[in-house]
Amino acid sequence: MDRQTKKTFDTAYSAIWASYEEYLVKERGNSSATIKTKKALVNAYTHRVQEGDLPLRAATITGLTPQVSSHHIGEYSKGVQPTSVAQAISVLDEFFTFLERQGTVAVNPIFRPADLIVTWHAPGALSDDEVEAIFHLLPVHDIAWVEARDRAILHLYYDAELDPSQLFSLTASAFDGERLRVRGGRDRSLATLKLPRVAAEALSNYLLLWPGSFLPDDPLFRHHRYHRGVNQKGHARFLQMKAEHLQLRYTARLLRMAGVKRRMAERPKQGRTRTPPKWQRGADKDWDFEALILAFRQTHPRWD
C-alpha cells in the first residue's frame, strides 16, 4: 500500500474509531481497559488488511468484503488458541455491526468459520493435583461443626451422587450409621442407599460435632443460625437458593485461583454423547466438578 493510500485509510479509520469509542462508553458502558483491549484487536486486524497481498487488500475501512475478511481471519487463526480467535471475531463482529447500523459499511464482512469451536466449559472431572489445589483453597471455618458439615455435603454430593434437592431435604432420622434414606425418582419415593465409607465417616463426624441435638424431623444440613421452628422446609429451600446463587458467582473465581485451566468443548462426531457413570470412570481418578463447587460455596464466608 502506497503512502497516500495508507494515509487515507488511517484518517478514515481514526474518525470511525472515535465514533465507535464514544458508543462503547455511552451506550455499552465499557471500561477504559475493555476499550483498550478491543482497540488493540481491531488495530491488529486493520493493519493486517492494509498490508495484505492483492487482491486481498482493502484501501479503505469501508471497502472490506467477506472474502477479504475470511482470508485474514483464516491467516490469524493459524497457531492461535481457539478461544483467542473467538474473542477477536467477537470484537470485530461488534465493531462492524456498529458500522453497518451507522451506514458506514453496506454489510458486516465478519463471519465465524464453520469449523471453529468457540465455546468452552468448566471441566467435568478434575485431576488429582487440581483436586488438591481446590481443597487447599477451602477456608477453615472457626466453627468446627460448620466445616464438618461442608465436608459431609461434599462427600455425599460426590461419593453418594446425591443432588442438591436430596441433600437439603434430608432429615436427621435418614441416617443410621452407614445407610441413608433418600427420596428419588419421579415419584420422589424413599430409597435406602448404602454410603461409601468416606462419606459415612464424614457424615458421622458432622453429627458428632453438632453442638445440639437432632429430632427425627429436623433437617440434617442447616445454617449455623438455624432454630427449630415451623418453617423448616422454607429454611431448607433458602439454603438451596443461597447455594445456587453462590455457585453462579464464585465458580470461575475458584477455578482461576486453583489454577484449573478452561478446557475446550469437544464437538461430538455423530449423535449424542453420554458421560459414563462414575463407577465406570473410577472414583479415585475422576472428581465431580460440581461437588467441589458445592464445597466451596458451602465454606465461603457469605454462606454463613
CATH architecture of the largest domain: Orthogonal Bundle
In which order are the strands of the major sheet placed? 1-5
Report low-confidence residues grouped into runs of 5 or more. 117-125, 241-252, 263-289, 300-304
CATH first level of the largest domain: which class?
Answer: Mainly Alpha
The total count of helices amounts to 11
| CATH level 3 topology of the largest domain | hpI Integrase, Chain A
Strand coverage percent = 5-15%
Rg calc? 27 Å
Proportion in helices: 40-55%
Largest sheet: 2 strands, antiparallel
Structural class: mainly alpha
InterPro entries: CB (IPR044068), DNA_brk_join_enz (IPR011010), Integrase-like_cat_sf (IPR013762), Integrase_recombinase_N (IPR010998), Integrase_SAM-like_N (IPR004107)
Protein name: Phage integrase, N-terminal SAM-like domain
Keywords: DNA integration, DNA recombination, DNA-binding
Pfam family, one: Phage_int_SAM_1
Structural account:
- By secondary structure, the chain is mainly alpha-helical.
- The chain has two domains: 3-118, DNA polymerase, domain 1 (Orthogonal Bundle); 125-303, hpI Integrase, Chain A.
- It is built from eleven helices and six strands.
- Strands 1-5 form a two-stranded antiparallel ribbon.
- α2 crosses α4 (82-102).
- Keywords: DNA integration, DNA recombination, DNA-binding.
- It comes from Devosia crocina.
- One of its GO terms (biological process) is DNA integration.
- Residues 7-100 form the Core-binding (CB) domain.
